[in-house]
Amino acid sequence: GRDKLSKFNIMSKIKKKVVVDNEEIIDLEMQKYVNHIGLAIVYYRRLRKLTQAELGEKSDLATNYIGQIERGERCPSLTTLIKIANALDTSGSKILADAEQKLDEE
What we know:
Helices cover 68% and strands 6% of the residues. The chain has 6 helices and 2 strands, in the order αββααααα. It starts with a helix and ends with a helix.
């Protein structure tokens, strides 16, 4: 009924498509989680006073890839998340926990 229609309307408003292991995410909850992972990375990067380029250099990842992750356009693999977390002097589990907490607050 109405629930499906409103969820469809929300989904249709999401313009960007997120790629995880070359598969598009269509689940709204997963999209939100990926967005929050990106925002947690932005938070720790700014806390460490690093640019995306500096984080890319420290984690051996391309600057544009860092940007895509931070904007929620790509979901990092576990290996990538650990590289980023190490470069930010934090842990992958802390980034995931922060993202999950924000998701629970919505």
